[in-house]
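[step 3/7] fold_predict: job queued, chain A
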Amino acid sequence: MATTADIKNGLCIKHNEKLFQIIEFQHVKPGKGPAFVRTKLRNIETGKVLDNTFSAGHKIEPVRIENREYQYLYQEGSEYVFMNNETYEQVNISSKLIEKPEFLVEGMNCNILFHAEEENPLVVELPFYIISEVTYTEPGIKGDTATNTMKPATIATGAEVRVPLFIDNGEIIKIDTRTGVYVERVKNK
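[step 4/7] structure written:
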């Protein structure tokens, strides 16, 4: 068991029977009363952030997690199959552990957080950006660029994103996977 003196950014702990990662913390020693540690905790499974205050010396239960690189292979029903890049071992992961599975591209390298003692996958982290082809979008009107208007477009993975009016079918675009927002048009190589 560790105490609040061992808290640092990125540390994973078990709190209220759930796994949390410490995003930020602050030791506070008020002029009157006991010291305490104010923290922001991110639930590893849901991604929700909550504020929590621990009294100084409070016992915490650290959990060892490992970040491993896996390659996405294919979808099998409601599960996704990933392969370890070092051992070539395959693992099936439920769609609920992937925040935005609609942005998965076959062959994409992803980081998977594993509970080190139990060897359970906890969450799949996609790369921050993907590059994909626009498979369908309504044609834009020539000269209609005065406003920052967006239109829906379907990309090669099947996901729907909003793109500027000048984007046409077959163009390659860059998308932020965290927000699902169009970033820029990519020049064809």
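[step 5/7] annotate
Residues 65-125 form a domain with the OB fold (Dihydrolipoamide Acetyltransferase, E2P) fold (CATH 2.40.50.140).
The longest strand covers residues 65-76.
exit 0
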